[in-house]
Structure formats: structure tokens, C-alpha cells
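Re: your question about [Fe-S]-binding protein

S., sorry for the slow reply, the queue was backed up all week. Below is exactly what I fed in.
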Amino acid sequence: MDMTMAVPVSFTAGALAEIRRLMSAPEFDTTKFLRIGVKGGGCSGLSYILGFDDKTADDEVFEFEGQTFIMNKMHGIYLMGMQIDWAEGLNARGFTFSNPNASKTCGCGTSFAV
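Result:
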């Protein structure tokens, strides 16, 4: 891994704790990588991807505070500077995405436009 490459995405302590909790489950497939990315769709044009997946030849590997993750090389332009958080409140529970590249986001917070 090229350590000179800027890490495009950061995680809050809460998000890291939840990811590590999920990865420590007995049924977790340890051959999978944490994937962050985008896909077409959603109310605003693009939706975030956050899940566990196989690494492909198009992926780059990054590390943030000990957490390794993969991202398609083409997705960096959409996600550079994004912060992922974990919300656990009365109105919302789940991962949230704070993306400085988004020109507009939808009410659900998982879809955006650039």
C-alpha cells in the first residue's frame, strides 16, 4: 500500500466502533473488506455504498486509524473529504455521510448529487 496517498474518507470514533463491532461478530466473513463507494440511483442521482465486499483489481486500499477499507479508484472524486459517522438516536440509527463534494443531498442522507 502506498502510504503517501491521501486517505479520501475519515470515520468518527462512533463509526469506527460500530464497524469493528460488526466485524467482530462470529458470523462475519473475514475474507471480505470494508467497501466505501458510490453507485447510480437514489433520489439525488448517486447513493453511498458502505458494506463488506471482495477486493477487485479496480480497488485501492486505504487505512484510517487502523481500519482498512477499499474503494474503487474512480470513486475518489466523489468522496474525497467525506466523513462517516454512526448515529444512534430516537429519530435515526445508522451510518451518516458528511460529503463536502455533494451539491445537494436528499432527506434520507444516503443519496447526493455533485
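The chain is about 15% helix and 45% strand. Residues 13-23 form the longest helix (11 residues).

Happy to talk it through on Thursday.
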